[in-house]
Amino acid sequence: MYSKHQETQIAIISFGLIMLVCSLLTSCKPQPDNKNTAKDTGAFPFTLPESKPNRDMSAAMNRIYTDYESPRPENNELFSQFKYTELIGFDYHDHDGTISRRDPSKILLHKGKYYVYYTHRHTPTPPQGHAKSSDVIPSADWDLAEIWYATSTDGFTWQEQGVAIQRPEKPLVGWRSVTTTDILEWKGKFYLYYQGFMEASGKRGDDCPVALSYADSPDGPWTPHHKIIIPNGSEGEWDQYSIHDPYPLVHDDKIYLYYKSDFGEKGNLVRMQGLAIADNPLGPFVKHPLNPVITSGHETSLFPFKKGVAALVYKDGPEHNTIQYAEDWVNFEIASISELMPYAAAPYVSDAFTNTTDGRGITWGLGHFINVATQDKFHSMLVRFDCDLSQDVHDPQMKKHRVNHKPDVYYRQGLSKTQVDRISEENNKLLMSQ
Ligand code: AAL
């Protein structure tokens, strides 16, 4: 029969043949959807593909597959409408402008009660502008203010508890006004960060640093730290005058404090968001070298979402009315576009301080409406918003991408006299040129 050598040769050839047959068989399997498959060349399909199709597409079509979680807003966890509810429990002196509540903190849940802290102004007159302001007459809606707080068990009806942070004696930080606060819970203690004005707002601009008080209980008593926690930038730096809207979250075992600054010349302000990071609530806070980290927004609120952080960016800037996301908590991308977003949104963020790496998102919070009466009675009101920006809730009504308004909503955004005159002049010129 065969020699040893011949038998070995036959075994090697047989093994090779088996491998060849196997490779031929697998090459007949449908290839996974990858770049090597033939591109679709026909017209775009009737059913919108949920994942990116392998075809040449316009910039806009590519974008809905590369920039957003889903090509459809209703399937995008970081898209939502916003619904609003009037709160029960706050008195506004018949809206005469002498009482204002605004710029609420994130909602804190502690021992079965919700807590919210906010700017509370109670002055003999409504704001009169810087020139007419005095030690008792406010220059702005947030001038001569204190920080008050309220509690609730349902987020709709609130019991106002009174002052949390009073204005300290001059020249301590915040002697003119303490405003626009936010809460941090860290290792069993509570910290309120707030804007500490040392002049009436409007003197040069809305200029202030950030100060801090701390307590063992959310009901206080609050001990002022009497030091500037987030200093203004140096001369010529973007945040040299104002450090607004301090907003602390816990991430990577550190305190990530986001803030706003108004910069540029008066009447032509730019508002952007910065980030300062510390290992300790009392600082030192180190400003991020990539600041500003968000190019738009005002009183911007944020919440941990999956591994990263999401931001409600509204009111100002080229990317206002967007919900943005940064997986690294620094480099934000637009995750969705929304409308009628809450001003000074202060959500209930269940994992704001848990150092989470799987942020669950938000479904409600407080915000404010500013200038709710006539200009000469300027004051603001707190309001509740609801949304579905949560991994744990799916509310199709919040995911409708069309917010229907009645005609009066549009008519309220009427033309100014200047615009009417301009349009009339342009129209007359056109008709005369016929
Ligand atoms: C708010 C916030 C800050 C500003 C002023 C009061 O919307 O941005 O707090 O200083 O306006």
Chart the SSEs and their pairings.
Layout: H1 4-26, H2 59-66, E1 83-86, E2 99-102, E3 108-110, E4 113-122, E5 146-152, E6 158-165, E7 177-186, E8 189-197, E9 210-215, E10 223-224, E11 244-251, E12 254-263, E13 270-278, E14 286-287, E15 301-306, E16 308-313, E17 322-326, E18 333-337, E19 346-347, E20 359-369, E21 381-390, H3 407-411, H4 417-432
Antiparallel strand pairs: 1-21, 2-4, 3-4, 4-5, 5-6, 7-8, 8-9, 9-10, 11-12, 12-13, 13-14, 15-16, 15-20, 16-17, 17-18, 19-20, 20-21
Bound molecules: 3,6-anhydro-alpha-L-galactopyranose.
Write up this protein.
The protein is mainly beta and 434 residues long. The chain has one domain: Glycosyl hydrolase domain, family 43 (Tachylectin-2, Chain A, 5 Propeller). Helices cover 12% and strands 32% of the residues. The strands form 4 sheets. Strands 1, 15, 16, 17, 18, 19, 20 and 21 form an 8-stranded antiparallel beta sheet that branches. Strands 2, 3, 4, 5 and 6 form a 5-stranded antiparallel beta sheet that branches. It has a 4-stranded antiparallel beta sheet with strand order 7-8-9-10, with no helix packed on it. The chain is globular, with a radius of gyration of 29 Å. About 3% of the residues have low confidence.
